[in-house]
Amino acid sequence: MSPDKKKIRIGFILLVFYISIMSGIPIKAAGDELKLLPSIAVKEEYNDNILYTIAQPKSDFITTVSPGFAFINRTEKMDITLSGRLDRLFYSKYSEFDTTDQYYDGIGKYAVTERFNISGKALYSKTSRPDRDLETTGIPLGPATRERQNYGISGTYALTEKTAATLSYEYLNDNYDAERFVDSESHLVNLGFVHDLTYFARSTKGRFNLGYARYNMTGSKIDNYEATIGFSRDLSEKWNLLIDGGARYTYWKFQVTDVQRTVFDPTTPPFFFPIFAEQEKTTSELGAVARLNLNYKWERTNAGFNFGYDLSSPSGRTGSVERTSLALNVNTRFLYELLAILSGGYFFNKSSEVGIGTKVDEETLWITPGIRYEWSKDILMEISYTYNRTRYNTVREYTDRNLFLVYFRVQHDLFN
Hints:
mainly beta
């Protein structure tokens, strides 16, 4: 077994073992919610640009068969979910792209006392679709295989009746099977405080966060420090608003190849020869951070709008990007079984002003309207259309894609 796979297995074992031990109760007690949900899903899609390229796009029909499972156990003190899924992709014309993607994750939460609770997560995925990050980062990757590990732990403590503090740590590791992509790992630490401000403003909470992120990539290391202040407020029974804003300080350390000196050899033209050497350089900058979430929830309709501006690591590339993101999600239930869904987003990824690493200046837009029919909580079908477009401002070119999709899923609870 490889070291990476050992880490994956150890991570899951520790997560499940720790939460199980901390719960201190039988796995099936009065009032528990216990589910074991095997599932099978089939997805048929027509994609007119399967590799998401600028020139000579390839179109194809893709069938994806996805067996999976979910284990859920909820009690008064504990909430744990483990899940896994395989996606077997079959291409109609371009069978050389046939592959199997894998997803495994576990999340858990445990109330140690009335004032203190802890939570943890562990995730492993192995994916190869070029469009896997379009709706999360806006950056297309290409058909390289990526193995991702993601682990996190956090604790929340109620300092007083009105004030709570949260401390969290998260680890992310990405490895690619192609040399043109850069492997990376990141460490993120955050300390946050929430204080009830109802005395000054109805249904309002103040927020303060301190964050640190360390990104390690081939040839560069990035340290990012952030501080934000904001508030969340229930505007009414239907609307909720969250706003954070602040500043960041980013410090880069990177390797460059410079001419160290030249030597003279009178016997061989061109007589002078440069001697190259790796040198370490550093630079830093100040920047802004902003976040806004607006949510609507009422009877048959749910909607959410998110805005973000922050520094991030570009998937598969070296350096960093300033990312502006907008996202919208709306679903309306016309009948008990029938829903209309609409989602979309916009990303603007641009290299930081210091210009270290891969040059990035890209805008990505996507929109997905669709309908979903739910025969029951265990059987559903969804039909949707997705349009994606990415503009590469450095070369003044763009690529786009149309994707038509039919999705069907069945699951069954073996414990009921």
